C-alpha cells in the first residue's frame, strides 16, 4: 500500500502534474450538472484537481485521510479541506450537489461502502462522478504492452473493485442511475516496459499481487523491445451516476 504521507510532496510531479490535473478537472466538469453549487471531492489528495473545480457561486470541499496530502491541499484550498475517511465522511446527509471520486475506488477492497457514503451525502438529483477501470487505462490502445500483460490483467479482472459494470450494479442498488461518461488523457504518464517492471517490483500493480504472477509478468515485459521507450499515455474513464 502506498504511504501517501511520505509521497505527498512528490505525488503530483510523479503523476502527470498540472497537465493531467487540468484534463481530469475538465472531464469532471463535463459530467457535473450546471446547477451544482456544492461539490465534495473525496480522497482529494493534494487538491490539485479539487482546486480546478472551483467556480463563482460554487463551494468546493476536499476530504482526505492523509495529513501529508491535506497539508498540500490546504495550501490550494485554504479553509476548504477536512480530514476524513471515505466511508465516514464528515458531511451532513443530503447536503451536497456532487461527489467526486478520482483514482480511489481501485485502491479499495470493496467500493460499496464508499459508494453508499457518497449516496448518503448527496441531495436528491445530486451526481456522483468517479473514475472507473483504472487497471485498464494504460491498455486501451492495441500495443505490445497490452498484449504482454493481457493474461494477468484478465485473470485479475474479477477482483477489480472499480470495474464499470461492478460499480454500475452497486450504484443501482443505492438508487443511483447512470448519468453520463467521458475520458481524459494521463498526460506524460505513458510508461516504458522498464518502468512497468519497476512498478511491479515495488508492489504497486494490483494485477501482479502474487509472486508467481509478478515473476511471469516481469519476464514478459523484459522480453519486449525498446525497454526505455514510453508507450502511449493512459486514457482514464469517468462515469457519472445521479441520485
From TrEMBL:
EC? 2.1.1.-
Pfam families named in the record = Methyltransf_11 (PF08241)
- One GO MF term: S-adenosylmethionine-dependent methyltransferase activity
> Can you name the source organism?
Streptomyces sp. Y1
- Keywords attached to this entry: Methyltransferase, Transferase
Record-annotated Methyltransferase type domain positions: 40-129
Name it. Class I SAM-dependent methyltransferase
What does the entry give for GO biological process? methylation
Task: State the top-level EC class.
Answer: transferase
